[in-house]
Design brief:
Elements lengths: L4 H25 L3 E6 L5 H7 L3 H17 L5 E6 L3 H16 L8 E5 L5 H17 L5 E4 L8 H9 L42 E5 L8 H6 L2 E3 L6 E3 L6 E5 L12 E4 H6 L6 E6 L14 E6 L3 H6 L6 E6 L5 H11 L6 E7 L5 H15 L6 E6 L3 H18 L8 E4 L10 H12 L6 E5 L5 H4 L5 E7 L2 E6 L2 E8 L3 H11 L8
Parallel strand pairs: 1-2, 2-3, 3-4, 5-8, 5-14, 8-9, 9-10, 10-11, 11-12, 12-13, 13-14, 15-16, 16-17
Antiparallel strand pairs: 6-7, 17-18, 18-19
Helix pairs in contact: 1-3, 2-3, 3-4, 4-5, 5-11, 5-12, 10-11, 11-12
């Protein structure tokens, strides 16, 4: 539907007339109102002018906010929800920017990633969206929306908010002197292409095996790296790391060659350096004479930025950057904005945590919050607590963070709601069944919604939708199009898979 200025403004006037009685009642009774925009439920009028964008979400909310202020009603909370953390973060930042640069008042802001899903995926998406904004000082209330029992949501939210209890004492972050950065738009940092890092390449993943005294094929298989000793054939999976950090160790498998990162002194002693690359501390750079002609990794901290800008780096240098600042993401962001060179950058972070919700939430906030801003050419996530037990999970977590940040897709993307009284089938069980059978469909987006009230709108980003439509009945969608109605609940998953097959989007799992 096309709206010219006349019909557009007439619709705003109709909204004014319809909403005004409610505002007057709230004002009379001292009742608060939340003005919330959902990415999947924008009106045709907003879509016609702003598209399916963060700007459209913000303008939709501001229309109602202006009406409220016209009635001198200010008892308001604002929210901008989306299942895509990238869209959600940009919408909230743009909202704050609009409030700051207008005559409108500032209001409390409620944060949430809607339909985040279940398990690790739900926690990662929520942490990237909510945590990134909390790091920016945006947000007064938080809702974590998981396809799990309600009592599991609040502890995850607390893991996000409790980080800020002592955060005011963090080391001062020096503001970059000159920079070009828009907090409400995705712009990938321009970097040089070195081997398979930087440029237009997807962010790489480095997996840490340096804690092992002996690295053998058992450890490699756990990372999806399969090497046939007889034929020399190497097979990897979508979530096999691009590089392995071995420290001072070696992979003792005959004729096996894989991209490895080795501490500099150990690298000097290596006889075979075809796919072995040195890790060099920037503080020792001046004393080093021999480097790799193909690829060098330079290790540094964010407070080394002045030294970096003055250093004469070896050719083909990729930076591996860490931060000791409690305010990790903003400190890293300031570093990126202060850089005067275009070398690729791997974002590194080490946590003294067991593999747990706490590690998932903290790392997703710290690292994912940078990738959704276009910063980072790779991820190097480590844990010093029982790494030999959890290195496979940490490798998987790295890929999941990149997927949730929408910068590298290696699996199916699921959008599922937290369920409510309108859901008339077992949503958690169904979500688990669909995930089990379709998790290998790389790049496909599947929405699993409890009802038709909010479901179709909130899964607007999905390729396929499985939506409850009655007692033990579901409806299947292709995008926003209804394909089949009134399917028996027990047949729903099979019918969904048949639809995917009919469209030619099915591949058999390995």
């Amino acid at each position: 539907i096309d709206y010219d200025d006349k019909t557009y403004n007439e619709e705003i006037e109709r909204i004014y007339d319809r909403v005004s009685p409610l505002i007057k009642i709230c004002k009379k009774n001292g009742t608060a109102m939340r003005i919330g925009t959902n990415h999947g439920s924008l009106s045709d009028r907003i879509l016609s002018r702003f598209g399916d964008t963060p700007k459209g979400m913000v303008e939709s909310a501001l229309e109602y906010l202006r009406i409220c202020e016209d009635h001198n009603f200010y008892n308001i909370v604002l929210s901008m929800k989306a299942s895509n953390p990238l869209v959600m973060v940009h919408a909230y930042r743009l909202l704050v920017e609009n409030l700051d640069n207008s005559k409108l008042k500032n209001y409390p802001i409620h944060l949430g990633v809607t339909e985040a899903g279940e398990g690790e995926d739900g926690r990662i998406k929520s942490a990237i969206g909510i945590g990134s904004l909390l790091d920016d000082g945006i947000g007064d209330t938080v809702r974590v929306s998981l396809t799990e029992e309600p009592e599991f949501e609040s502890p995850v939210a607390s893991l996000m908010t409790d980080r800020y209890i002592n955060r005011p004492n963090h080391d001062i972050i020096q503001s970059p002197k000159v920079f070009n950065f828009s907090p409400s738009r995705y712009d990938k940092r321009e970097s040089e292409e070195i081997v398979n890092i930087g440029g237009d390449y997807f962010p790489v993943v480095i997996s840490d095996l340096s804690f092992l005294n002996k690295i053998d094929d058992k450890h490699l298989r756990m990372l999806g790296i399969n090497f046939d000793l007889d034929t020399g054939f190497l097979n990897t999976e979508d979530t096999s790391p691009d590089y392995i950090y071995v420290g001072d160790n070696e992979i003792e498998i005959k004729n096996f060659k894989y991209n490895t990162i080795v501490n500099y002194d150990k690298w000097l002693k290596n006889k075979v350096v075809d796919k072995s690359f040195p890790l060099i501390d920037i503080l020792k750079l001046k004393s080093i004479k021999k480097v790799s002609k193909k690829l060098n990794f330079i290790s540094l901290k964010t407070n080394d930025v002045d030294l970096l800008n003055q250093s004469d780096l070896p050719l083909n240098s990729v930076l591996i950057i860490d931060s000791d600042n409690d305010h990790f993401m903003p400190d890293m962001r300031a570093f990126f904005l202060s850089m005067s060179i275009k070398n690729p950058v791997i974002i590194k972070s080490n946590y003294n945590l067991n593999y747990s919700d706490k590690l998932i939430v903290h790392s997703s906030t710290d690292l994912g919050g940078l990738f959704i801003q276009g910063m980072g050419d790779g991820i190097f996530l480590r844990s010093s607590q029982e790494p030999e037990k959890y290195f496979k999970k940490i490798n998987s977590l790295s890929f999941k963070i990149l997927q949730a940040a929408r910068v590298r897709v290696t699996a199916t993307d699921f959008i599922s709601c937290p369920s409510c009284g309108r859901t008339l089938f077992d949503l958690q069980k169904t979500t688990a069944m669909i995930r089990e059978r379709t998790d290998h469909l790389k790049g496909l987006k599947i929405g699993i919604m409890g009802c038709i009230v909010n479901g179709p709108g909130e899964m607007a980003d999905a390729d396929y939708g499985y939506v409850g439509s009655g007692k033990d009945k579901i409806t299947l969608y292709r995008g926003q199009e209804v394909v089949k109605r009134a399917i028996k609940y027990e047949d729903g998953v099979d019918e969904l898979i048949e639809l995917i097959k009919d469209d030619g989007n099915w591949v058999e799992p390995k």
